[in-house]
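Narrative of activities, Objective 1.

The group set out to show that a structural description can be obtained from nothing but a protein's sequence at a throughput compatible with the screening campaign. Below is one input-output pair from the validation batch, recorded exactly as produced.
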Amino acid sequence: MSLIVGLPGAGKTTLARRLEAERAGIRFTPDEWMKPLLGVNEEDGKRWVLESQLLWGVAARALTLGVSAILDYGCWSETERDLFRNRAHEHGALAEIVVLNPPFEVLWERVAARNAALPEGTFRITREELEEYNSQFHVPDAAELARWDRQLVVTDVQEANA
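Output recorded for this entry:
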């Protein structure tokens, strides 16, 4: 199981799509489910229910069948990340964390460009919202990373593509 973490604009979905193809796995991108199911990006914790219950249930089944699961979740807190690492281990899967952490201005440039031509299933994010998200994102430290079977920390998705 691969958990891809980072803020909007970090390149999570781009990398998740690549890993899905390379590993013949299944990618779980909540943004692609939120709008069709609920018409919003976040509402009263429903995104967490989608990630931790519905999508995880399918991912867990994939892991049980030996299929790679790529969670394109964001997971800004250590508690969230620990939950999915532990769940992967409970299903006998290795747990990989990929942290995408480009500089804030890079994030904003990408989000602004995305806002200008909003793709289907993507939500508009203001600079103020991105600043708030940035203040809430706790980048994994060395002790947390050491608990994962595999880890990769990059400041840009291009580095992960190398």
